[in-house]
Write a structure and sequence with these properties.
By secondary structure, the chain is of the alpha/beta class. It has eight helices and eight strands, in the order E-E-H-H-E-H-E-H-E-H-H-H-E-E-E-H.
């Protein structure tokens, strides 16, 4: 039985209950899953402090299947590195429909600059107006974790099925929840989770952008070192945790993609 939340203007579905429809990643073939586990056991420690180029070259050589590069469009460093080291990888962007206009502009520019990489734009099952109708307006304020689950976690899971692993932009310098992030691990589906930027600082990222004339998200130069949905991202003061502006209205630090 579905619980309803009484909200002004009507009754809405319990946000803990996602819309009907597919929302899980398909299981890997058994041989690929075993190979991934073996690779992590052998290489995780060796790659822990490796350079981004070495990590991506390793991924190109050893991954037992196609890889996808997840791009938040906060910066385009991963897109540039993948163009050099992972010529066969797809790009994946979670279009939550709550992004800053500048973020969508960066996504369009990435698609134009790197035409040899297919850009997959993953969206939630419900459009933003449909979500408001089913779950009530401003779900991101009332139940931010549920909003992230439906608009980020589940779309990523659904679109991850064709891949043996994914490339993430995790950096240990981004805050205490990421301070011990691995360069190589398994996600909860047995896929490789590869994070070539784990040792980079924000300054390293900006220097690489400028040195290689990359596409720059303008808000990263206006006090937004970490950028998510426009509804849930605020600028931060100098010296603050880079992710301090994410969900500043809630006791929440992660969207669920890396938990």
């Amino acid at each position: 039985m579905i619980n309803l939340l009484n909200q002004p203007g009507g009754n809405f579905r319990d946000p803990e209950i996602s819309p009907d429809g597919p929302k899980e990643t398909e299981a890997l073939p058994e041989d690929v899953a075993k190979r991934n586990a073996s690779l992590v056991e052998e290489w995780a420690d060796k790659l822990y402090d490796a350079s981004a180029a070495d990590i991506l070259n390793w991924a190109h050589e050893y991954a037992p299947g196609k890889l996808v590069v997840t791009l938040s469009m906060e910066n385009t460093v991963l897109a540039e590195l993948a163009s050099r080291h992972l010529p066969d990888a797809d790009f994946l962007f979670l279009d939550t429909e709550y992004h800053f206009p500048e973020t969508l502009e960066v996504a369009d520019q990435v698609e134009q600059r790197y035409p040899s990489h297919r850009l997959v734009r993953a969206k939630a099952q419900l459009t933003r107006p449909e979500q408001d109708e089913v779950y009530g307006p401003n779900l991101y304020l009332r139940a931010p974790s549920a909003c992230c689950r439906m608009r980020k976690v589940e779309p990523l899971a659904l679109h991850m099925s064709p891949y043996a692993g994914w490339i993430t932009g995790l950096r240990r310098a981004d805050g205490p929840t990421r301070a011990e992030a691995s360069a190589l691990s398994l996600d909860n589906t047995g896929r490789l989770k590869i994070s070539p930027l784990v040792t980079w600082s924000l300054e390293d990222t900006e220097a690489f952008e400028e040195r290689h004339n990359l596409i720059i998200h303008p808000l990263t130069r206006q006090g937004y070192p970490s950028i998510g949905c426009a509804t849930c991202t605020l600028p931060v003061a100098e010296g603050q945790d880079p992710r301090a502006g994410r969900w500043a209205f809630a006791s929440k630090t992660e969207c669920g993609l890396h938990e």
